[in-house]
Write a structure and sequence with these properties.
- The chain is mainly α.
- 61% of the residues lie in helices and 0% in strands.
- It is built from 20 helices and no strands.
- The longest helix has 26 residues.
């Protein structure tokens, strides 16, 4: 009996040692803490991934300037306050700035960091356009641009949050200077507005292409104004949501900035007649911010059971791009733009024509007409009265078809070259390239040659050849008198 009890006790002790090790109580609390941490991270991730609500740009001015500011804000205050509110939203929304997080749960999130990148890109674009909208040079605006253009994933000091805070401080000082008696003010003619809208057109066009690249079949883009050949490679399935939320962030930020610019530039928009289209643009961006009821960004096709959220957003983005392009073209007609120098195009044309004349003269080995005219003027052998009589005699003779005259007055063809002429004189044929270069120079000096010049041309090559057997004796004597000084 005693042996049986001892054997049973020994078996129970071995079972207790196997089931209850000496340190077996540690892993259970750790497992419980890990489960609680994962549940908390999941809850925080869902909360932090909610996009912030839209804000009122009019109220943003009062909040940014403070209640103690009693002066009236000048043009550009609403736009500056809206930009400051965008930056504050990135810093003060639930979870703060998540794009540079190196620890969970921010490290595990990708939708909200992509949304933050979209907002930051529109803030950068406006910061680059603010110096062109400002009448004077403000160093603070250059500092803001430098802070916002830094890497969005910096987490070492000074991290992205620190740079955003510095940009807020500089924008706050600039907003104070926009009040009455301040040194800063926006231009009253919409300076820089068209350039900013042109940059927005490019960004929206790029967004439309990236959103459309999530679709495998290019036939589904037939109804959209999208160049399928310019589409990038198909977006991988695990990055479709990143592109979608980045586009949502850009549309959200651009919607508020357009509302602020409409408040500051109302008179400029009215003079350009784009107020109604501006309202349509803002409404199109507002429709792109409708609530996403699906927990996932779906990438369906056609009329299937699953929607294609990227394609729906691409439709709104493309419509907004077309509206911005139309507004930019109309604003460019009323807003001042730097005009090119009026004297530059004529100078270029003259230089090209002169080069063509010099090249033609060099290739053909002809005599320079300017030197020939100068030599005639220096010798002074031609009598002005005789030249006038010879020109009148040639005009009275109704200019019959002759070798010298036909070579000069032959019309030019479509390529700008002189049409070939039938001539009985070999000298006139050799002199043809010189006359072509003179006509192409567009200087007007050889447009209506006189009788003296026509008579001088054949004599330069063949002095012993007569001008025309059909002319009367007076015209022949005048031509002979012209040939003597040239020889």
């Amino acid at each position: 009996m005693a042996l049986t009890q001892k054997g049973a006790a020994r078996r129970r002790s071995r079972t207790e040692v196997l089931e209850r090790p000496e340190y077996g109580w540690i892993w259970k609390p750790l497992l419980a803490l890990l489960a609680i941490y994962l549940v908390v991270c999941l809850g925080l991730g869902i909360w932090w991934s909610q996009a912030p609500r839209s804000f009122d740009v009019e109220q943003a001015v009062a909040e940014q300037r403070g209640a103690e500011s009693g002066s009236t804000a000048a043009r550009g205050a609403v736009t500056t306050a809206a930009l400051m509110t965008l930056i504050e939203t990135l810093l003060e929304k639930p979870g703060g700035y998540l794009r540079n997080d190196v620890a969970p749960p921010g490290l595990w999130l990708d939708n909200m960091p992509a949304w933050e990148l979209g907002v930051l890109m529109q803030a950068r674009r406006l910061s680059r356009s603010l110096p062109a909208m400002e009448q004077s040079s403000v160093p603070a605006l250059e500092g803001v641009q430098e802070r916002l253009m830094a890497d969005s994933r910096d987490w070492l000091y000074p991290g992205t949050e620190r740079r955003l805070e510095q940009a807020l401080e500089e924008l706050g000082g600039y907003l104070d200077s926009l009040g009455e008696g301040g040194d800063a003010a926006f231009g009253d003619q919409g300076q820089g507005l068209a350039a900013w809208l042109e940059a927005i057109t490019g960004s929206l066009d790029e967004l439309g292409l990236r959103l459309s690249a999530s679709i495998g079949s290019r036939d589904e883009l037939r109804d959209l104004d999208i160049d399928t050949e310019a589409l990038p490679e198909r977006t991988p399935w695990y990055r479709v949501d990143n592109v979608f939320f980045e586009a949502r962030g850009q549309a959200w930020a651009l919607m508020h900035l357009l509302k602020a610019v409409r408040r500051d530039q109302a008179d400029v928009l009215a003079s350009a007649g784009v107020t109604q289209r501006w309202e349509l643009l803002v409404a199109e961006l507002e429709r792109s911010q409708r609530r996403l009821w699906s927990p996932l960004v779906l990438n369906g096709s056609g009329f299937g059971i699953f929607a294609n959220h990227s394609l729906v957003l691409a439709n709104h983005v493309v419509r907004a791009r077309d509206l911005v392009r139309d507004i930019t073209e109309r604003l460019a007609e009323v807003t001042p733009t730097p005009a090119p120098t009026a004297s530059e195009p004529p100078v270029v044309e003259v230089e090209r024509s002169e080069d063509a004349v010099e090249k033609t003269v060099t290739d053909e080995g002809a005599v320079d007409e300017g030197a020939a005219d100068e030599g005639v003027a220096d010798e002074g052998a031609v009598d002005e009265g005789a030249a006038g009589e010879s020109a009148a005699d040639v005009a009275e003779a109704d200019m019959p078809v002759s070798s010298g005259e036909e070579a000069v007055e032959a019309p030019a063809n479509d390529d700008g070259e002189q049409a070939p002429s039938v001539s009985s004189s070999e000298g006139v044929t050799e002199e043809q390239p010189v006359q072509e270069g003179a006509i192409d120079s567009e200087e007007g000096e050889m447009s209506s040659p006189s009788g003296d010049d026509m008579a001088a041309e054949p004599s330069a090559e063949e002095p012993s050849t007569s001008v025309d057997d059909e002319n009367d004796d007076e015209a022949s004597s005048a031509a002979d008198a012209e040939e003597q000084p040239n020889n």
